[in-house]
Amino acid sequence: KDHHKQITSIFISYDIRCLFTSSMDGSIFGYNIITSKKTKVLYHPRLLPISNVIVSTSPLPVIVISAMYNQ
Question: How much is the pTM?
Fold first, then answer.
């Protein structure tokens, strides 16, 4: 399954050889940049649009997201 709404951000981590995309559909996909295979699929718990995804490996591995929400 691919994003079915607009992609909002792309983050590349050469340290862990992954590319991450976030989308208005509330999903985040992680891809191995060597094999091009999808390795991670994450969803916002309420499927809110995700505006940014950032990955850090130091000092601990973490994925940070920000979600847009307007009422």
Answer: 0.85
Q: Is 53 exposed, middle or buried (0-12, 13-18, 19+ CB in 10 A)?
A: buried
Neighbours of 17 (CB within 10 A): 13
Q: What is the pLDDT of residue 65?
A: 86
Q: How far is CA 23 from CA 37, 48, 60, in A?
A: 18, 9, 25
Q: CB within 8 A of 50, min separation 6: which ones?
A: 8, 9, 22, 23, 24, 26, 27, 28, 44, 65, 66, 67, 68
